[in-house]
Amino acid sequence: MTDPVFGPAPAAADDPELVQLLTPEGERVHHAEFDLDFSADQLRGFYRDMTLVRRLDIEATALQRHGELGLWAQLLGQEAAQIGAGRALAPQDFVFPTYREHGVAWCRGVDPVRLLSLFRGVGHGDWDPNEHNFALYTIVIGAQTLHATGYAMGVQRDGAVGTGDPTRDTAVVAHFGDGASSQGDVNEAFVFAASYNAPVVFFCQNNQWAISEPFERQSRIPLYRRAHGFGFPGVRVDGNDVLATYAVTQAALQRARDGQGPTFVEAYTYRMGAHTTTDDPTRYRLSEDVEHWKLKDPIARVEVYLRRNGLVDDEFLAEVANEADELGERMRRECHELPDPTPTGIFDLVYAEKPAELAAQQASYEAYLASFSDEAEEVSA
Amino acid sequence: MTTMTLAKALNSGLRRAMEDDGNVLVMGEDVGRLGGVFRITDGLQKDFGDDRVIDTPLAESGIVGTAVGLAMRGYRPVVEIQFDGFVYPAYDQIVCQVAKLHFRSKGRVKVPLVIRIPFGGGIGAVEHHSESPEAQFVHTPGLKVVACSNPADAYGMIQQAIASDDPVIFLEPKRLYHSAKADVDESAELGPLWESRVVRPGTDVTLVGYGPTVSTCLDAAAVAGEEGRSIEVIDLRTLSPLDLAPVQESVRRTGRLVVVHEAHLTLGVGAEIAARVTEECFHSLESPVLRVGGFDTPYPPARIEEAYLPDLDRVLDAVDRTFGF
């Protein structure tokens, strides 16, 4: 549609360039800006990571079906986006996830059982963000993008950008999805990051669906193009291509560490599962779409490439499969062993310095609980 | 000892905190070169630089949300919300993130953040510039909420709020910024932050206020004193946690309590005080606990705000009514 005065409106149908280094058929292709040489070990590592986090996801989904978890947010189909983004990080980089970044958590060394505790209802967040440089899962959509931007402003004030020291210069990653791109907080994060040239990478996994709402409900233009309007570069990468995701993320992280400011990375992917285990996607999307995206599977293409080039043998693949089985078995076992919190323990977690009035409320509740045990003792006596 | 306005006392307290701890940052709209619309941060950017006194984009959720990230990186941000009515765009960040991160993380993440809010009416302002939103934050576990009423407290309390490892909503009575003047001893040791305080002893009725209504209560006590009625006035100072021990001790002697705030009456801080004092002092009460506050209407246009705000006469009327039961 071209307005006679204002000219043409951009359209979602515009076919944006998609950075890709490995096609769905497993063909290695090259890209002028983002190409990298990957070692055989790196490629095998990507395969192993993606296979294990897929198993993690399947196992957690099964645990939910068996009533061991109240809920699970599946990452199925987004393994390449998350492993590519996660493995591109330097140790000192800091990540702010949504609630679906199980693959990034894996790369940051967070034990998958820690992730289960949130969904089992035994805690709201069960790892130390500063131990893993990985913030807690954030459930309010988009809120963490501001935290990431603020953290990046802190990095700037610490003089940890643009020094040229690869162990010091630090980037921050804000994860979010296509739905979150409509949130005010995300747009404010773009404004703040641009204004201060903060060392943050906005990593959007556009998995096409915000529960039941298709991407078209969120945006009339490809998301990565929004970055331009905020004053920083954006790029769309094949989110099912772990090589391309890794290469693009690494370049964006380096830009941030060098002091060149924020970058928007749109990892174009697809949510193969439901939004969460409570969702029923058959009510709102066609199975043909899912079948279409199955052909773009992130793991299969790496396996084809590795096999075709003689970089793996059956023994390696069997080892990874075994490792996945062991991970699944451990998750099932340790999920059961997660201790329930105590009702009186919650009073201790609210404040760094517990107020007397909260301590009094706690004491009153403990006395109430104790009154039952007294009764029980009297009855038994 | 220096005579200073409440605004100057806050400015001096902020300056002192920034000198004492290099991680203290000030951020907000117009806080830099302008020194804030009320000049509370006057001169701070000149002396501490724009890395520590940060003019932000005009987005309150962005200000508070980035302050959370700065706190996670080890800084102690002091955020200025320009006016009370503009805090709501940041409400989600305050209630869901600032207040809950310590709990969510089992204490691993601390948010030593101070959110300064000029609050209350009486300055003839347009809509959204005269509100008293404190109950919204008192109702939120994880936040602490304090209100200063005089220059000496403003100077000390802002430093103590900044030193707190918990997030603090810091309420400043804007109509007293430049009118309240008092001697402030900047070298004196600071008293406890989380305590309310008897500011005028009395024997017949207890009057409780905070922020801008403390001076109203003191005026009422002075007038009542001329009429032979002895009123004890308590400045709450801390709204979350509430320190009601001095209030209850007082009510056990006077048997009568009136709570005064500018905020709407329904489910306000006064309602909570009435409930708790009734629970604790039931047998000492000679009268129900009465409240004087803003009406359950939106804040009115400025030409009639004096009718809406609790004033000397409405407070004295409530005092009289406590003798009618």
UniProtKB/TrEMBL annotation, chain A:
Instruction: Note the Pfam families from the entry.
Output: E1_dh
Q: Which cofactors is this protein said to need? A: thiamine diphosphate
Q: Which residues form the Dehydrogenase E1 component domain?
A: 48-327
CDD domains, sorted:
TPP_E1_PDC_ADC_BCADC
Q: Does the keyword Oxidoreductase apply?
A: yes
Which keywords does UniProt give here?
Oxidoreductase, Pyruvate, Thiamine pyrophosphate
Entry keyword annotation includes Oxidoreductase: yes
Superkingdom assignment: Bacteria
InterPro entries in UniProt: Alpha-ketoacid_DH_E1_comp, DH_E1, PdhA/BkdA, THDP-binding
Output the PANTHER family linked to this UniProt entry.
2-OXOISOVALERATE DEHYDROGENASE SUBUNIT ALPHA, MITOCHONDRIAL
The record ties this protein, via NCBIfam families, to: PDH_E1_alph_x
Q: What is this protein called?
A: Pyruvate dehydrogenase (Acetyl-transferring) E1 component subunit alpha
Query: What organism does this protein naturally occur in?
Result: Nocardioides vastitatis
Write the lineage as a comma-separated list. Bacteria, Bacillati, Actinomycetota, Actinomycetes, Propionibacteriales
From TrEMBL, chain B:
Q: Does the keyword Oxidoreductase apply?
A: yes
Q: Which organism is it from?
A: Nocardioides vastitatis
Keywords attached to this entry: Oxidoreductase, Thiamine pyrophosphate
Q: What is its EC number?
A: 1.2.4.-
Query: The Transketolase-like pyrimidine-binding domain covers which part of the protein?
Result: 4-179
Protein name (Swiss-Prot/TrEMBL): Alpha-ketoacid dehydrogenase subunit beta
Q: Name one GO molecular function term.
A: oxidoreductase activity
The protein's required cofactors: thiamine diphosphate
Q: Which Pfam families match?
A: Transket_pyr, Transketolase_C
Matching entries from CDD domains are given as: TPP_PYR_E1-PDHc-beta_like
Keyword DNA-binding found? no
Q: Into which EC class is this enzyme placed?
A: oxidoreductase
Q: Which Gene3D superfamilies match?
A: 3.40.50.920, 3.40.50.970
